[in-house]
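Researcher: First entry.
Model:
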Amino acid sequence: MLRKHLTKVTALVALAVMAPAVAGLLMAGCRRPKDDTAAQVQAAETESSQATEQAEGDDKGKATEEIGADLFIPLTVDTFEELVVDADKPVVIIFSSRKCGYCKRTKKMIVEMGDEYGDAVGFLTVDKETSPELVMEFRVHNYPTVFVFSRGRQVDKWIGAIKEDEMRKRLDHLLGKRLPAEDAN
């Protein structure tokens, strides 16, 4: 019994002595890489912080969910079948977070393109705080995450912010695929 107790005490002492060394090794592995990679990381952090500041500055006096309130329809578990599966036009679903600068910027970009695509494409939004069940169902971990559905099936997906010309290209491609099928009806 005493031997078992001494073994535990010895193990705890060894752990206490080794802990600073292990912590040092772990921290060494967590240091940022040098050279070009460090500059890229810093540039990405700066861009992210600028996007957040710009989105927050542009939206002073507005709640985040008010961005494009007339264009975006909130999506819930109860309305999913009606708004996505049974939709008669392609649907873009944006999963976002209220505090996400890129989400705000993406929504603002879509609002600006709303006149061009508003009649041909439905825009839905899912807020991670108000619809966690949809976030889990779609396995969304990063924001913004955008799903595109056509005729009830997922046809495109992207994670993170994309440039306006890339979004236009994807939406035009989607609508271009749909036009011949609509003409056949």
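Researcher: Second entry.
Model:
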Amino acid sequence: MPTWRTRRKCAEEVNGTGKENMGFADTIEFVHRDKDGKVIKKWTSKGTSHNCLTNLGFADVAALILLDVADPIQYDYIAIGTGTAAPNPTDTTLGIEKSRLAGVGTRVQTAVANDTAQLVATFSQAVDGGLTGTDDITEVGVFNAATGGTMLMRQTFAAEPLNWDAGDVFEMTVKIQVKQASA
């Protein structure tokens, strides 16, 4: 088993700092369909390295590494909203949340096996009766509870106009890759 000194030496050889470089990259994907299933728009952020995780999210990710920390918090909910403020690591909620649903979580490969957490939820009036009228959806967040809870990450994107009453369906996929960061 590598010792602290061995790990430090390895990090120094890699980047000369004595610090191991690790980072997160998120990819947001959505598919907007009409009531007949016809794709209106597909969009992806194509993996963005930035402040996608919140400060509270980082604390929970760190807890996953340790056995002696209370049960790790599991993130299984995707929320969408209409807020437009830029994401900030201190965010704890979406700007204006419209709906939150339990997603289907899996691990997928981006660069190496199982390096990416993927969560998918499909929003529609049929699934959430509170989605009525029209909305310009502009933000997404991942949470650990059906209401309230801790927000792991938040991201904004160009407005996607949805007409819930006309039967629009909005499938949101959030991927968070754990990877080596650049020096």
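Model: Note on the second entry: The helical segments are 4-15, 55-64.
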